[in-house]
Design a protein that fits this description.
The chain is an alpha/beta fold. Helices cover 36% and strands 13% of the residues.
């Protein structure tokens, strides 16, 4: 199985950032094919809580060495439900947590999942099995809704033209149909190394999986379980993800309250030390080996000794386009 050999982005940097301790407990919040979990377990004897909303990820545990089988607990579910997952496992403290945001290479490479404009398949784009599909969003949303999704989640300047054309051409049922519609507006010529369909596919995928709210609430709840010196390590692949992480780390470090639409109200307490003022990015060597790593940004924050007493305040507002 080719995807079993998929190497996650910045794996050495992630393991180093987590500062793995013997017998520590670590959460791999986006298990995927288990690349980070495997690298962590190979470093020192410890325990992994592996979370993934995609039930197909469970099969990748079979590739793990037998000596690691009793060191990893797989949980199928959303990482925004981190608090529930850990409490169900009777885990009160963890030594670190890693997030690898966005769609995985395995999901992209499977045309039937509908994530890729390079492979024809159904307009699905669900990372798990509980959300609505891309087809439902594309065919049932109003023009204003589609324009907002494409503009905000995709940062696409042609959002108005594309959303109007979707209404003219729908129903759409395949990734090929959707991609060709985008090309009819933008052409097929790449902008740098970016395919013209990338932003629109990204936008619909984020809407289908509610990805930004997933990040927002998982980050908030992770602080509650981190031991002093425990670390949050994130790998983001586009500006919206990275912006949420950066603001969250900064807001819970700086005593001055920062107003922001992603985190409208945050704590005045210092709960995190922002280890990476600037993100760590892949080396040229890694980018040559894995072109998908080119946009990756790694950020690290460390839990301080400030007691956790529901100090993190965050308005219950969902991020929406």
């Amino acid at each position: 199985m080719k995807s079993l050999h998929h190497k996650p982005v910045l794996v050495e940097e992630v393991v180093k950032a987590l500062k793995i301790k013997k017998n520590g407990i670590y959460v791999d919040a986006t298990f995927g094919s288990g690349g980070y979990s495997k690298a962590i377990l190979e470093t020192k004897p410890c325990k992994i809580i592996a979370i993934d909303r995609d039930p197909k990820s469970l099969k990748y545990l079979k590739s793990f060495d037998k000596k690691f089988k009793n060191k990893i607990e797989f949980v199928e579910g959303l990482f925004s439900n981190l608090k529930v997952h850990l409490k169900n496992l009777n885990i009160k403290l963890i030594n670190g947590i890693v997030f690898d945001f966005g769609v995985s290479s395995i999901q992209l490479d499977d045309g039937e999942r509908g994530f890729s404009f390079k492979k024809n398949g159904p307009l699905d784009m669900r990372m798990g099995s509980t959300s609505i599909t891309a087809e439902e969003i594309i065919n049932n949303s109003s023009q204003n809704q589609l324009e907002s999704i494409i503009k905000f989640y995709g940062e696409e300047k042609n959002s108005k033209i594309i959303s109007k054309l979707i209404l003219d051409k729908r129903p759409l049922h395949s990734t090929k149909e959707f991609a060709e519609l985008i090309y009819s507006v933008k052409g097929k010529k790449k902008i740098g190394k970016i395919d013209p369909a990338t932003k629109c596919f990204q936008a619909i995928r984020i809407a289908v999986n509610d990805e930004l709210n997933e990040i927002k609430y998982a980050l908030r709840d992770s602080i509650e379980f981190l031991v002093t010196g425990g670390r949050i390590v994130t790998v983001s692949f586009h500006s919206l993800e990275d912006r949420i992480v950066k603001l969250f780390f900064n807001n819970n470090f700086d005593k001055s309250k920062i107003q922001n639409r992603h985190f409208p109200e945050v704590s005045k307490d210092i709960l995190l030390q922002n280890v990476t003022k600037k993100p760590i990015i892949p080396s040229n060597k890694e980018i040559k080996i894995n072109n998908r790593s080119r946009s990756a940004k790694l950020r690290i924050a460390e839990r301080t000794s400030m007691p956790y007493s529901n100090s993190i305040k965050i308005k219950e507002e969902r991020i929406s386009a």
